[in-house]
Each structure stands twice: as structure tokens, then as C-alpha cells.
Amino acid sequence: MIQLINTSDGSHTIYVPEIDEHYHSVHGAVQESTFIFINNGFEVCKADPVFILEIGFGTGLNALLTAIRSSSGTREVYYTSIEKYPLDSKMVESLNHYKFAGEHGREIFHFIHSAPWNKSVNICNNFNLNKIETDFTKIQLQGRYDLIYFDAFGPDKQPEMWTRDMFAGIAAVTNKNGILVTYSAKGEVKRSLKACGFDVTLLPGPPGKRQMIRAVKI
Prior knowledge:
Elements: E1 3-6, E2 12-16, E3 21-22, H1 29-42, E4 50-55, H2 61-71, E5 77-83, H3 89-94, H4 105-114, E6 120-124, E7 127-133, E8 145-150, H5 164-172, E9 174-182, H6 187-195, E10 198-204, E11 211-217
Parallel strand pairs: 4-5, 4-8, 5-7, 8-9
Antiparallel strand pairs: 1-2, 2-3, 6-7, 9-11, 10-11
Helix pairs in contact: 1-2, 2-4, 5-6
């Protein structure tokens, strides 16, 4: 049974005993997501408007942080997120991520999680969300994207999510100069991204993680 865990920055993550894996870093869930996906992804991508594809909606933390950041900016954001196993409402209501998202955090957190699946919804100023409940490994991706948040469980826990074929599918819908960011820095992930047409850079990781990957579609 999944468990709610406090991480080092005070924000929650979820532990999945069946695969011995956490949704986020125990060194700080909000800290990790902000560092990887916002600071090294959203803020680096200059597309306007920006079309984002997230692999692994999870707790909705990346969507929340992106919505908060975009709501105070000028770029329109179209955010598509894929999740096979949505959390139940009781677990969602236990999460404290909104406390780290500023004045409108609770409201936006609620709108994100109450939004219907498989439908595009305007959540707040500049932020549009389409949560898709499906199996990433069994679909053909649609659309064109400027920024990819690859946030599946780790390659050693969900290897089927990290295959070269999966990255080829992502590459096919990523615009030229589009950016992919992920917390993983494994050699096989780097090689797969390079083989699929990405220029791969290793960056310093957030606390508790030595490196992360940022890749640009050539």
C-alpha cells in the first residue's frame, strides 16, 4: 500500500513499497521538481507559446509548479501529462504541495486535480492542462512539443518506460531545439537519447543527485 512520506524540505512524496520507489527525492520533493523541471527546463525553453509533454503526472507537482510560474508570466502554456495510474482522491487531499506554491497554490492545486481526465482545461492564467489516463508504452503520441518533462519511475524500476523505442516516440513529436529534462543520468538513457536525435548534456543535479540530463532535439 502506498505511503505518504515527508521529505527534507517539508514537502510530501509517496512511497511505493511494491517497487521500493518514491515519487520524488527524499531530499526534497518540491526542491527537486523546481530544480530539474522548472529551473533547467521551463525557464530554459524559450518557445512562446510553449507546448509541454510530461511523462508521469504522479502527484501533479510538476504541473502545479509550472502553472504557478506561468501564471505570473506572459507565455501561454499547453501542458499534456500522461499517467497510467492516477492517485485516488484521498491521497491527493493529503498532499501538502500547495503550501509551497504561493498565494494561489491551494486553488490551483485543486483545479489541477479536479480537472477531468482526457480533456483540455484552462486551469489559470496562461496555463492549460490535458491529463491523459493511458499507458505510455502502448500509445502513439500525438501533437508537437517544445519541452518534455520525463518523470517516470527510474529505469531500474520501470525499464519498459526508458527504452530506445519510447524515446524515439518522444523524438518524433519534439520540435527542433525542443528540450527534454529528466532526473536520470544513466549511460543507457544518454545513449538512447543521442540515438534518437538529441544533443545530450549532463548537468549538476539537485541535492541528493549528482547529475541530471538535459537534451536538445537536433
